[in-house]
Amino acid sequence: MSEAAEDSNRRLLRARDAMDREYAQSLDVPGLARVALMSEAHFIREFKAAFGETPNRYLQRRRVERAMFLLTQTDRGIMDVCLDVGFTSLGTFGRTFRDIVGKTPTQYRQGNAPQRVPACFTMTWSRPSSFGEANGKVGK
Amino acid sequence: MFTSINISSIYVLDQDEALDFYVGKLGLEIGADFDLGFMRWLTVQAPGQPDRQILLELPGPPSLDVDTAAQVRELVAKGAMGFTAGLTTADCHRTYEELVDKGVEFTQVPTEHFYGIDCGVRDPFGNNLRFTQPNPDIKPPTPEELKQEFTDPATNPGDCGTPA
Question: Which residue of chain B has the CA closest to A17?
Answer without folding.
Answer: B107
